[in-house]
Amino acid sequence: MQHDIPELENFIDEQAINNTLKHAAKPERANVLEILSKARNAKGLTLEETATLLQITDPELDEELFAAARDVKKAIYGNRLVLFAPMYITNECGNSCLYCGFNVTNKDLTRRTLSSEEIRKDVIALEAQGHKRLLLVYGEHPKLKADWIAETVQTVYDTVSEKSGEIRRANVNCAPLSVDGFRKLQEVGIGTYQCFQETYHQKTYSSVHKGGVKKNFLWRLYALHRAMEAGIEDVGMGALFGLYDYKFEMLALLTHAQELEKNFGVGPHTISFPRLEPALNADMAYNPPCPINDMTFKRIVAILRLAVPYTGLILSTRESAGLRRELLDIGVSQISAGSRTYPGAYSDPEYDRPEVQQFCISDNRSLDEVIHNIVDAGYIPSWCTACYRLGRTGEHFMDLAKRGFIQQYCLPNSLLTFQEYLEDYATESTRKVGKACISNEVENCPEDRRTVVESRLKRIEQGERDLYL
User: Fold this and answer.
1) 237 with 195: CB under 8 angstroms?
2) How much is the average pLDDT of 308-327?
3) Could you tell me the CA-to-CA distances from 204 to 97, 198, 207, 244 in Å, in that order?
4) 367-417 pLDDT, tens digit each
5) Which class for 424: exposed (0-12), middle (13-18), buried (19 or more C-beta within 10 A)?
6) Global pTM?
7) Residue 241 scores a pLDDT above 90
8) Residue pLDDT, tens place only, 199-229
9) How confident is the model at residue 356 (pLDDT cuts 50, 70, 90)?
10) What are residue 113's DSSP bridge partners?
11) Which of 183, 198, 194 lies closest to 137 in space, CA to CA?
């Protein structure tokens, strides 16, 4: 289905956003509670309602906000949590971004682009940990063309280790491409295409992007339009919090989501909300212009969950293990685990190397440690990729999700992928708590699903793999 992409005009109306925030200032308690009551129906929020929640100052209303977010998260996602790892293919970049260690002017960064053989080594190392879903990350250098990116994606998919199997979903975070370029990525079967605007405030955008193609605000703003026009049904957006006022960025993110829905019938598959973290030779990363404290960050996550209830919310290892645990309850549905942020990191025995990283990470736990901890917290880790291979993506996925599809299929499928992990990769202690978790969840499965799930769990124990509903 073809869609008309509008002329390149800035659909982020800064004056309208500022007026919305001004109008919603100092909200009355009754108004906040009314919005939260509506939000529990999981129908989303308007920009005006979101602006109101963003300006809560009463700690008691904060607790009401978090309670509503917990209810919506549980109702839609249950206790399922998707896991993935970022894999950096190159840190070569032609942009000059004041907050990033990959800045082209950073002469202390060791530049590296992985060869096909080096890609295979890193993939095998990730597969050996138990990963099945990757986010492939590319520096934004003009010489890195769509054909080459597509070739690297194909290399990832083609790398199958004897014991550990294969990567089943490769999402991509790379520089914005033309429609033709995105078609090449779609043809090799990428999952989600991810591109962050960083900041939607145009003056700030210009001040922090000093050179390179990334300086073109509108080219980046329409990247997801072009990706969807090319047939990539799942796209991911985000803002880098700390560059500008978070209230503005939140309303701009939602405006961007609405624009995609208006043009393509579906909004973003995922939204990310990273905070600035220290990076080599990037003073701004150490001293954010608009710092975000932990409580504000929790509000951001909770409000996003209520505003876009069926959109995946992604949390990276930039955040500490303790804070990540808190955010699972109030909105986060996907997390990275065991992350390393430079090319070749997973096959590098000396991985703690700040001179090659894009930014510092706070959660250094291994994948197995993360899994053990989240199971202890009552969550089921999932590597399910069934929807993507059965065509349940984009508008189709969202339609099914709103009719309770996630509970019917995604939760049983998460148990099957978790069983694989326990059989092939888990430590003994994680296997013990994991088996108990699966047993308990099977008991709680709807009767019409239980027999099927039990049968397929048994088949996995006997050596079959990649089973799903």
Assistant:
1) yes
2) 95
3) 12, 10, 5, 7
4) 999 999 999 999 999 998 876 666 655 565 666 666 555 566 778 889 999
5) middle
6) 0.94
7) yes
8) 999 999 999 999 999 999 999 999 999 999 9
9) low
10) 90
11) 194
Q: Which amino acid is at 367?
A: L
Provide the percentage of residues in the chain whose pLDDT is more than 70. 91
Read off the DSSP letter of residue 408: I
Query: Cα–Cα distance between 117 and 123 in angstroms, integer?
Result: 10
Q: Are 295 and 349 in contact (CB under 8 A)?
A: no
Residues 91, 345 contacting (CB under 8 angstroms): no
Tell me how far apart the alpha carbons of residues 123 and 398 are, in angstroms, rounded to a whole number.
Answer: 30
236 pairs with which residues across the strands?
194, 270
Total number of residues shown for the chain: 469
The SS3 of residue 96 is strand
Q: From CA 290, how far away is CA 455, in angstroms rounded? A: 53
Backbone angles phi and psi of 342, in degrees to 5: -155, 160
Residues contacting residue 87 through CB under 8 Å, at least 6 positions apart: 122, 123, 126, 134, 135, 136, 137, 156, 346
What is the CA angle 51-56-60, rounded to 5?
A: 145
The three-class DSSP label of residue 64 is helix
Name residues whose C-beta falls within 8 Å of residue 85's C-beta, 6 or more positions apart in sequence. 126, 129, 131, 133, 134, 135, 336, 337, 338, 339, 346, 367
Report the relative pairing of strands 209-211 and 96-97 from DSSP bridges: antiparallel
